[in-house]
């Protein structure tokens, strides 16, 4: 029988890891520039960062897809060095 661990407050099960090209500056600022989703590369036109949890950065971005500006949420987990999207 499987029991949920009450200390597990987060699961990566509903997220998809994606490759991202980002810039990191000396002040600790992070800016995603490109993201690859299902083999297709998207340029990030704009983004706003919400620092929700320690070592977790959520970016509300806009990308161009087929000449349309679309929203995209990217989350960076510093301790895992991983970028995720809802999946």
Describe the structure.
The protein is mainly β and 87 residues long. The chain has one domain. It is 0% helix and 63% strand. It contains no helices and 7 strands. The chain has a 7-stranded antiparallel beta sheet, with no helix packed on it. β2 (20-24) and β3 form a beta hairpin. It is globular. Mean pLDDT is 87; it is low at 1-8.
Q: What is the structure about, briefly put?
A:
By secondary structure, this protein is mostly beta strands.
Count the strands? 7
- Describe the strand arrangement of the main beta sheet, using strand numbers: 1-7-6-5-4-3-2
Sum up the overall morphology in one term: globular
Q: Give me the Rg, rounded.
A: 14 Å
Number of helices: 0
Number of domains: 1
Describe the main β-sheet briefly. Answer: 7 strands, antiparallel
Distance between the termini: 27 Å
User: Average pLDDT across residues?
Assistant: 87
Strand content: over 45%
Weakly predicted, low-confidence segments? 1-8
Topology order in helix (H) and strand (E) letters: EEEEEEE
The portion of residues assigned to helices is under 10%
Report the structural category. Answer: mainly beta
């Amino acid at each position: 029988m499987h029991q949920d661990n009450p200390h597990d407050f987060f699961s990566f099960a509903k997220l998809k890891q994606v490759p991202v090209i980002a810039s990191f500056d000396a002040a600790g600022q992070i800016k995603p520039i490109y993201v690859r989703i299902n083999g297709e590369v998207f340029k990030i036109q704009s983004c706003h960062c919400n620092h929700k949890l320690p070592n977790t950065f959520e970016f509300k971005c806009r990308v161009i897809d087929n000449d349309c500006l679309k929203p995209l949420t990217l989350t960076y987990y510093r301790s895992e060095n991983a970028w995720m999207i809802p999946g």
